[in-house]
Amino acid sequence: MGNRIANQYIPDSVSPPGETLQETLEALGMSQADLAERTGHTPKMINEIIKGKAPITPRMSIELERVLDIPASFWNNRERDYRENLARREEHARLEEHVKWLDSIPVSDMVKWGWIKGFKEKVPQLQEALRFFGIASPDQWQAVTESLGRQVAYRKSNAFTVDNGALMAWLRKGQLDAKQIHCKDYDEKTFRATLNSVRNLTVEPPEVFQQKLPEMCSACGVAVVFVPELPKTRVSGATRWLTASKALIQLSLRYKSDDHLWFSFFHEAGHIIKHGRKDIFIEGSDISMDDNKEEEANRFAAECLIPLSEYNRLVGNAPYSKAKIRELAAQLCIAPGIVVGRLQHDGLLPVTHCNDLKKRFKWAR
């Protein structure tokens, strides 16, 4: 039996087109020497073609068409298929030496979420993973990850403390999903105005905001994607520019509550508006980023969600009852959980209080 890999069949043995040529000559009662004489080639050349040592060139296929009355396209296709199958068999053998690389990425989780297909055999699984990451072989993995790492806005002395393979898979999934979103060219003024409208989505259920948020942002040149967090990524969001006119905001549900989700979104939006287009920003407790830019993005998110003047009014009106929290949230057209999260973050409300005002989210599989 052969191996079926991503809808491509690799036979256990590959016959050269020369075998078909020899069968044709026998059916016509023609010798190799006769064919050599009729095509103007040496008997040695004809023999090498029949044995698969020499290819049937496009010119030779035309000559065979005239001599044998079999279309040149037939010989060209036969030669192409033979060389491709031969190359795939050789590639399969080479990849067998690299299957250990699969241990460096979360294959089972990627299969579980439907990011890649699952295969029982190692080489087909390896090929599927390589297609997902867009690399020819594991030899290119280090170069690609190092290139990405140089773009991440770290603090000077820090690097990843998370599972590198899982994080790369999560980022790649966001990139692939974003490619499917058609965006207008980025326009900062329009994006800023849209963020005011996005606040209203914080009171909506996931089935609404997961559709509306990407639609609204794509009109400004920003692709928004929701990608489940993989184990050991410890990431809540990421921002980067895919092209000079298209930005990407990628969100997970790491903390699974509305205050964290929406703060993450506006935080990433802050990076887009305030910071350069060369850096990649990845948010997570175990990922150390540029302090100044992170604080700037934090302030931007906080002000977008709860303007300082409104927040100070609430703070000056302690204690913070659920009724007061709901009242401010209604005035600002935001979810009450966002107000709770802000007060808890600032140490003005115990982390055990008012959590019933927060909405909890869970990924549907």
TrEMBL record:
GO molecular function: DNA binding
InterPro entries from the UniProt entry: Cro/C1-type_HTH, IrrE_HExxH, Lambda_DNA-bd_dom_sf, Rad_response_metalloprotease
CDD domains: HTH_XRE
Matches recorded under SMART domains: HTH_XRE
Domain HTH cro/C1-type: 21-75
Pfam entry (one): Peptidase_M78
Similarity annotation: Belongs to the short-chain fatty acyl-CoA assimilation regulator (ScfR) family.
Record-linked PANTHER family: ANTITOXIN HIGA1, BLL7220 PROTEIN
Protein name: Addiction module antidote protein, HigA family
Organism: uncultured Desulfobacterium sp
Gene name for this UniProt entry: higA
